[in-house]
Amino acid sequence: MGIQRRPLREQIREELLLRLDRGDFAAGKDINEVVLAGELGVSRTPLREALITLAGEGVLESNQGRGFRFAPVSSKEFRDLCEIVAGLESLALELSDPAELQEMAPELLRLARDFPDPVAEQSEIEWHDDEWHDLLLGRCPNERLLDLVTSVKAGMRRYTHLIAGEDTLLEREAEEHCRIAEHLRAGDVAAATAALRDNWISGMERMTSRIPVSPESA
Amino acid sequence: MGIQRRPLREQIREELLLRLDRGDFAAGKDINEVVLAGELGVSRTPLREALITLAGEGVLESNQGRGFRFAPVSSKEFRDLCEIVAGLESLALELSDPAELQEMAPELLRLARDFPDPVAEQSEIEWHDDEWHDLLLGRCPNERLLDLVTSVKAGMRRYTHLIAGEDTLLEREAEEHCRIAEHLRAGDVAAATAALRDNWISGMERMTSRIPVSPESA
DNA sequence: TTCATGTATTCTGTATTCATAATTCAAGGT
DNA sequence: ACCTTGAATTATGAATACAGAATACATGAA
Predict the structure, then answer these.
(1) Pairing verdict, β B67-70 and A67-70
(2) Is the CB of A8 under 7 A from strand C?
(3) Which nucleotide is nearest to A45 (CA to C1')?
(4) Which range has the worst mean pLDDT, A86-100, A149-163, A202-216, B77-91?
(5) pTM, rounded to two decimals
(6) What digits encode the pLDDT tens for the residues A4-32?
(7) What residues of A are in contact with residue B95 (Cβ under 8 Å)?
(8) B52, B74, B79, B93: best mutation site toward chain A, by most A Cβ within 10 Å?
């Protein structure tokens, strides 16, 4: 094992995203830096650095003099994010080597069928889903594109915990992953790309009804 | 006029991008925070905040214990960035209302023909080009997408000053803008999207020979 | 001469302190 | 009763201080 020596700001960022997944933070709620820094056991400096990073990713908003707040959720923004990720992941697939995609198709199919039990931990399900997408895109030679996908997906984390515990949605997700993998196995990248787009668009529609109306309208 | 009260970190970020356009910084060169903060007349705190933001946008790299450095340029990365921007701008165009696009086509055409003199300031040429693209995409309802485009383009600023002073390139750029605008005027968004993609891809090819070999290979 | 090792210096990463903008609350006036 | 105004409080934005890692340098041994 290697001794991990990473900047606090990165560890803090990840911890905050984890808490976001757990639904710890009320969207739209202002963040008190002193209190949060105390909870995390760090000083305000690296905390603020993490907050600034997250603001850049769209997870937080910052207003002059009023500090940071978790950006309120809205179905509009969620749809926007889905469109972006759909576009980016499709692009990544198009830029990948078709031969390599075909090569890893069986593995993708296996993983898609091996979807975790609906009773499994929510976090495990999400991890499995991320894993699948990461494997799918991993061969894309455009590294910046992959980084960008990761960053945009971080901005979607505010929404993922809203979908918790819907068995039918899970099954459909697994189904769609299978379909994508089968297209790849058949060597039809264009069809796989289209299916991937559908995967995000349908996910968007499935989710959109579950997003509470913006508490901003008050 | 309103009194401007913006965080120092934002002003610093812009100043650094400006200096980048001027080619002030040697790519790959380490940044000395104390020296740079002194030059800018600010303390290290807001400077570091700006550096972290720029690192998130891919303009800078950060290594634990060694601070920040301007990410070295490489034709590989430039191609990656062009692919991304081509994809994002195309997507933005597809998501825009075709009717509105057609409506503003004449304005786009006018601006494209009104390209600045080749003898004009490099900064003015770049400004004009950005302006054109901003106008083209401005009607896209996906705000997050537009923010993302802006952010990715910031990461390309390390490359723009390399193209300075090439008349033929300028002419071709203007030509391509005209073609895109004409497709829009004809109501053919698909053709305009394809032309926009070509605009970035050809820009990539025009530029790629001018990028010095990575000083990293040493 | 060259390589290794110990030491000094430099600079980053983090904590702490300070100044000022924003908010809250209470008192006074309409 | 309600609105305005101003003081007190709170929290952010920025500057400074501090500790430790990384680098450079010099000294000594092979």
Answers:
(1) unpaired
(2) yes
(3) C14
(4) A202-216
(5) 0.92
(6) 789 999 999 999 999 998 888 887 889 99
(7) 83
(8) B52
